[in-house]
Amino acid sequence: MKKILLLIAIAISLSSCAIVKEYEMVNINDPDMALSLRKIDRFEANFQAYREAASGANGGKTGGGCGCN
Amino acid sequence: MKMKKSGIVVLLLISTLGFAQNKSVDSTKVYKKRVLESSEIDFITSYYLQDGRNAAVSGGIGTEELSDFTSNLVVSVPLNDDDILTVDAGISAYSSASSSNINPFDGDNADPFLASSGASSSDVWYNFTGSYNHSSDNRNNIWDARLSVSIEFDYTSFGFGGGYTKLFNEKNTEASVHANVFLDSWSPRYPVELSSASRSFSIDDYTITGNSDYNPTFQPFSNKSRNSYSLGFGLSQVLSKNLQTLFALDLVFQQGLLSTPYQRIYFSDIEDSFIEDFQLADAIELLPDTRLKVALGNRMSYYINEYIVLRSFYRYYFDDWGIISHTASLEIPVKFADKFTLYPSYRYYSQTAADYFAPYEKHVSTERFYTSDYDLSGFYANQYGFGITYTDIFTNSHIWIFGLKSIDLKLNYYERDTGFNALFIVGGFKFVLDDRKKSIPKLLNKIGF
Fold it and tell me: Residue B62 contacts by C-beta under 8 Å, 6 or more apart in sequence?
């Protein structure tokens, strides 16, 4: 838990020292760089929400909407 | 008549698309890049197969064989430069050997490792979700709202939610918050030997072996609702020209009927009763009526070069039922031959057992809560995936007025240390509405609008 909070703090602090300009974001804007699930992965995330106890924090189901765990 | 109705629906859809596109032409007096250039249609379909020997319907033993075929149509329409309306409709048809054993007595020999031909052996699930997304003129503020409905034979769900995203530091940092509420309700189906409401089954028609004095204590659930409230936070950061990361926190509180009504329990301190080779339930699963879940996740994307990207994900999860879980995955998109990308991936998952879980015949009747659902047991799992995508940014191939933008195909194999395994194949087709200035008005003229 402490490690995760530390990582968040590092990420926030980094935001103030290394601004990448919009015209420099060619690589960041590559579709494969997206920080979210691809549409094709939605069924995979749903299956995992049904078959595993853990869910959430991945852009998929978090709980509710199905008779699953 | 049916054809006529279908025609009207198609015309309404076309009119909506046409209206959206025509309106957008008028609204571009001051230039700003549209959030979504053209209407998009995604058709995604999947086939899923699973098997195992720990079915919760038969108290932790028995076949878990299941197959499922799902299709979704997702239509995203730019209403103007700033707003997008998305409609997502899905249908899923499944056939399940384990849920068929809600009533295993179909005339053939009843056995937890064999499927029954009862009514619960297959079903269809329907889902409809509508969402609306608005971006500010500078694209640094995004609001969204969503509504959803889903229905299956024993479960109905109504959901709504919304979110807000703020971009700052010249779009290097993105903070988001979202909240969702699901108001769900069960139409409980109980194991047939317990349910006095069953018309197709009378226990007096069968010979009970083992303990012939079968007398379970069974109370149907009085509360049939399940409400879920979730609150999520996200913070993403561009770390360099080639590296970005996202931290996510999801909090979920669930309240109501969290047990699955048709999952049997066999107690070790109650003598076993059988009909044919099927053991009769001592009770049904009983779980607390509240649950708090906390999930913390991190995603990283690293652009190695024009051919290779690394995408990682890690999640730490815990809840107040005693489950702690770790999930880690790595995907390596590899571009080749201009239009193709390969997606090899690996995912590791582990969880500890819920406080209320025990395997077949390990619970005792004096316990307050009990389940033999192996989805709540302690296990670890490996998942291996391989996908391929064809992308044509110029949409040279057409179906009617839609240009084909991409085709995806993905195969995943999942296995647990308990013996459970699953295979799923997913296919996706993305189309964009093409030639928007000419085709739709021309088409509408042709059909008399």
Answer: B53, B54, B55, B98, B101, B112, B113
